[in-house]
Design goal:
With 251 residues, the protein is α+β, with helices and mostly antiparallel strands. It folds into two domains: 1-36, no CATH class; 50-245, Spore Coat Polysaccharide Biosynthesis Protein SpsA, Chain A, CATH 3.90.550. It is built from six helices and ten strands. Strand 3 (97-98) and strand 4 (103-104) form a beta hairpin. The longest helix has 14 residues, at 165-178. The protein starts with 11 loop residues before the first helix and ends in a 6-residue tail after the last strand.
């Protein structure tokens, strides 16, 4: 999505960079907005999947590096868990803080190759299509926009406030908790991830990073067939890092 320049309708440099980008793996659409959408707009409107419920999408910020195996894992977990109504999406990050006290990390035993956690991850997030469309339809900001109405008062949003990513994230957490939905995480040895956040935590960023932009120690760089032997029902983990439901072994 091309961002608006304060002195003209579009940022010409941003539009040119987007149009000159060559994507070698399929069709690539460039959406130019009439106004600044911010990061919330990026998440809400870039993936336009209304007529394709089998499509897999992943939302990647520009401060991420991905593992060579990230899409292999996504295809696997979408096929295994994509029909579950309690799975809101799939996270690529290897590290996740314990939200009860903001300590890193959850440290779930690696005997559990995946787990369901009540907080979603922004360092590479692949929404579960059905649940995502239901959330977009529910979201007050999106609903008002689709009706052509001004966003005034609706849950967390009031006139004159910036509907930023933090506000949106809190709303999404509220929605998934109310609907008893969880995010599925991988659980590789050493907290290896399928995406690595190298953001150095500058002031306009949302989250402090894990590295300096060149370190790949946090990425999964080797794949074994054992990673494909996932449980039919993963364990459920609460915000204190405690397993609250145990998995059913695959037969």
């Amino acid at each position: 999505m091309a961002r608006q320049d304060h002195n003209r309708e579009y940022s010409a440099e941003t539009v040119k960079m987007a149009l000159d980008f060559v994507f070698d793996y399929g069709p690539c659409d460039i959406h130019i907005n009439n106004q600044q959408e911010g990061k919330t707009g990026q998440w809400f409107y870039t993936w336009r999947t209304y007529n394709n419920t089998k499509e897999i999408a992943v939302i990647l910020e520009d401060y991420l590096t991905v593992s060579p195996y990230f899409f292999s894992w996504l295809k696997l977990v979408h096929s295994l868990y994509g029909e579950r109504s309690d799975v809101s999406g799939f996270a690529l990050q290897g590290k996740q803080i314990r939200h009860s006290d903001s300590v890193c990390c959850l440290n779930i035993s690696i005997q559990h190759k995946v787990f369901l956690y009540s907080m979603f991850g922004v360092s590479g997030f692949s929404p579960n299509n059905k649940q995502w469309l239901q959330y977009i339809a529910w979201s007050p900001e999106h609903t008002l926009k689709m009706r052509g109405l001004p966003v005034k008062k609706s849950r967390h949003v009031t006139a004159g406030q910036k509907y930023d990513q933090l506000r949106w994230a809190m709303e999404y957490i509220q929605y998934t908790r109310t609907n008893k939905q969880f995010t599925l995480y991988s659980n590789f040895k050493g907290n290896k991830g399928l995406a690595y956040n190298w953001n150095d935590g500058e002031s306009d960023s949302d989250f402090k990073g894990e590295g300096n932009g060149t370190d790949t120690d946090g990425l999964l760089l080797e794949w074994t067939t054992d990673y494909e032997n996932l449980p039919a029902i993963p364990v459920y983990v609460n915000t204190t890092g405690v397993i609250i439901k145990t998995q059913v072994p695959m037969k």
